[in-house]
Amino acid sequence: MESVRSDPGPQAGDSALTVKILVAGGFGVGKTTLVSAVSEIRPLRTEEALTEKSIGVDDTSAVQNKTTTTVAMDFGRITLPNGLVLFVFGTPGQDRFWFMWDELAKGALGAVVLVDTRRLADCFPSVDYFERRGVPFIIGVNRFDGAGQHTPDQVRDALDLSPDIPVVDCDVRDRESAKQVLITLVEHIMRTMSGRGALTH
Amino acid sequence: MSPESAWYDDAAGPVVRPYALTGGRTHYAAEFDMVALIVALAHPADLAGQHSGTPGAAAAQWAPDPEHEMILELCRTPLSVVEIASELELPLGVVRVLLGDLLDRSLIEVRRPAPVAQFPSERVLKEVIDGIRAL
């Protein structure tokens, strides 16, 4: 499939300095909590309605008799001192909303995949998606009370990740921890782009 | 029969409910990125002139909805497409149709996101890091 990052960009001049970071992972893993922790605004929620066109790309057995199905996304906004506006989007959890992922991933700087070590498999679809699309991502291991103390290296092995992908512990309820996750991601993006020779100065 | 009710005859089949607001239209000519910024070029009050008496067939046939006015009000300062959708509590697709109406009539300006994801500069990425640190 064609890379979502290969679209020609709009002409410079009338562009807005807005950038997107995605937060993915299974249901209940803390995506919205992370978005809330860093957003300058109360996280907002937007919905998209599935039309026939979007229903056609996935399993229709569950939705064929419905005329409306909506997918909700939570997002936050961070205005940086230089005027850049950073949007942080929590991705919809369910597989049948993949059509929305393409739109979210288009033009995204990168993604944080949140992992709950008690339900590691929940993050597999997100990891697969970002690997396939060449979207830079890192793994954030959200430390839930009662979760086993797996080391980042154990998580990396279990996910069969390439060694250059950062795996970091975090507590997404904590603002400083959430900020550090995003910083780790952007630093990883810099290294990735630098390695591809795609980075401009 | 009003233009809206014309969509609800028996032959129309099931209508996705949120799109009732757009008269059933789900397509829009322009592409509105989720994080494109929209800037109003007119005041909501100016829409009143669009109802009648405006030269041109397209304008004469157009009956703006309250949502069109709300978008112009919201976008007196630049606002992203996704935030407009959230404020209006409407699906993105519906908001895009409404934005298309406004763009067709040159009532808004669209500032598309800079292609930083395709060609990120080290400077921009460093600024993002510094900005997050300073939160």
From TrEMBL, chain A:
The keyword Hydrolase applies. It comes from the Bacteria. CDD domains: Ras_like_GTPase. Keywords: GTP-binding, Hydrolase, Nucleotide-binding. The keyword GTP-binding applies. Belongs to the GPN-loop GTPase family. This is ATP/GTP-binding protein. It comes from Actinomadura parmotrematis.
TrEMBL record, chain B:
It comes from the Bacteria. It holds the Pfam family DUF742. InterPro entries: DUF742. This is DUF742 domain-containing protein. It comes from Actinomadura parmotrematis.
